[in-house]
Amino acid sequence: MEIYRTSDPAAAVRRYRECMAGHEGLIICKAEGHFVETGGLATLDRDACARLNIPVAEAEYLGGSIVVMPGDLDLCRVTWGTVDWAPEMMDRVEAWLRARGIAVTRDRNDLLADGKKVASWARATSYDGWCMSVMHFSVGPMDLELVRSICTKEMMKTPGSLGEYGITAEDILALLGPYEDTAVVTRRK
């Protein structure tokens, strides 16, 4: 399986689309800056994004929006068929957080730590048989006011960050790995 690493969420979203067009792959993105990943069900203040110079990428296979903070981690795995690896990986993360003494609950596709949303996952299947599982881990410093200024829909869950518990993107990658790295590492310009 090809592994694509980037710090640019826009490049990650482009890669999601390329993979959904016909090959298996794992995309690992640790964000360097703010970014919004949005799907067809999202309600955003795009003017606020433009004013704040925050890029927005349409990920048409996803539903809502994620306001990505610097340091956040996204993992996307594209496979042929209907294999969804995200729930199994989230089970692993949930057990690991519990073992660290963190109060964790699940709310459908979200993972909450002490009542705050710190991780989520989604699955989409293309009309031609490709399955995409996406996981987002909030590990960077959370800027709740920024999220509120961008998202126009009332938040049902308060965003949080695993970073508040001393957890890094590297910790999560180590927990969910190892990965066979056969692809070129890309860098944000």
Lay out the secondary structure.
Blueprint lengths: L1 E5 L2 H12 L4 E6 L4 E4 L7 H6 L4 E3 L6 E4 L4 E8 L5 H14 L4 E4 L2 E4 L2 E10 L4 E8 L6 H7 L18 H8 L13
Parallel strand pairs: 1-2, 3-4
Antiparallel strand pairs: 2-6, 3-5, 6-10, 7-8, 8-9, 9-10
Descriptive notes:
The protein is α+β, with helices and mostly antiparallel strands. The protein has one domain (2-176): BirA Bifunctional Protein, domain 2, CATH 3.30.930.10. The protein is 25% helix and 30% strand. The strands form 2 sheets. Strands 1-2-6-10-9-8-7 form a 7-stranded mixed sheet, with helices on both faces. Strands 4-3-5 form a 3-stranded mixed sheet, with helices on one face. The longest helix has 14 residues, at 86-99.
CATH topology: BirA Bifunctional Protein, domain 2
Radius of gyration: 16 Å
Strand content: 25-35%
Shape: globular
Find the CATH superfamily: Bira Bifunctional Protein, Domain 2
Tell me how many strands there are: 10
Separate helix tally: 5
Order of helices and strands: EHEEHEEEHEEEEHH
Based on the coordinates given, report the CATH architecture.
2-Layer Sandwich
Strands of the widest sheet, in order across it, are 1-2-6-10-9-8-7
Task: Report how far apart the termini are.
Answer: 26 Å
Please tell me the total number of domains.
1
The helix fraction, in percent, is 10-25%
**The CATH top-level class label:** Alpha Beta
